[in-house]
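Could you join me in thinking about how sequence relates to backbone shape in a protein? To get us started, please write out a protein record for me. Would you write everything just below, so we can both look at the same thing?
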Amino acid sequence: MSDLQTVIGLEIHLQLKTKTKMFCACAQTSQEAKANSSICPVCTSQPGALPVINKKAVELGSKAALAINCTIAPYSIFARKNYFYPDLPKSYQISQFEKPLAQRGHIKIKTPDGEKLISITRAHLEEDAGKSLHSIGSKNLEHTLIDLNRAGIPLLEIVSEPDINSPEEAYTYLTELKKTMKWIEVSNCDMEKGELRCDVNISLKPKEAVELGKKVEIKNLNSFKAVKDSIVYEIARQTNIIKNGETVLSDTRLWNDKEEKTYSMRSKETANDYRYFPEPDLIALKLSDEYSSEIKNSLGELPHRKKARFIKQYALNDYDANLLTANKNLSSYFENCVELGGEPKISANLIATELMGRLNANKLEIKDSPIIPQYIAELAQLLKSEKISATISKQVLDKIWEKPTSPKELIEASEMSQVSDENQIREWAKEALDKNPKAIEDFKSGNEKAIGPIMGMIMKKSKGKANPKITSSIIKELIQG
């Protein structure tokens, strides 16, 4: 129904990149670690064990909050959130509620209608629960095993306002958030490892209505695609319910990737009563303005600001600027190329089209590239001065990918320089035209693309060395007589 508006809010759980857990000295472990190999009396909730706040987690949480334009609270407290899960030994989670670490932020995203601000309600610190492993043992008896390695892992929960109105906006918001968090190195954001998890709150309402519709929550989505696909499905499901004159039930649902459907997990007709109260074993966090300023100054230039600068300073288009600010290492690589004398637009094109293609094919990060910035800068200089053609630059990249060396030295040693001798190019052009009389007729009839096959023959004959501009000019001169 076209008169319905989709209203979406996202809750993101971000695993902070600390060495130890939120309230004890146990190390953060990988998924492959032996079950229950990093646990202690605190994270397994033994009687008398007392939690201690991880200072680094507070620092990283503050850094993340400031990067998304939140205000750090001068006074925040931890609380007990009471509920039972088999993998939550205390039967409560230490989180924050009434007085969170940070509030009132926003992320700017691009939409087909222009830029849009997605407001952020809050960002608060909490601990993760453990993990339940369900399996079937001997005699086909089902059983559940508990791994508490994750219990106590520090998380930052980032809660948006219901400002998102489409699956595409949700996807863009998540992409921007993930890019920023990785950029400032507060989290690895690996969704496959549970380091970034997303819950979706979605409802539909008449466009003119002020009151929101019945909210449905979709829990534990483990990829951006799953977020987008589940929203698409829910919009269709809820629209159909409303269209049939029925009422959408407020419930918690799970997404099934294989079936591409959501399934009801439990009813949410009444609000959960978590019986929050202040955690008596932890002191309040008192963070000064000086502390916030110090953390903010450590952020450096954030990706959206760097992208805007690249467009303005280097005259890059939006696509290239966005690609080059996808991560901090890539943006530094590009600026190193420019500092070493590479023309910005040519360097950006070499990185975006040639270098990234090779890196992706070999599943390598930019930091692992065998082609250093100096080599891209040299190639950009050679292309700008027209000493080599684009075809030759690709051949050079193929060679130096296998055996890293200076492009200038390689070209000089291999006689790969571009041919700009008009007499030589004229001979190649005459030979190509003699073999393609139809191309001459087509060109004279107004089809300028007809010289493409002629160019191709000359490039093949010259082994890619013929200067494209001079070649094109000579071909047209010969055709027109």
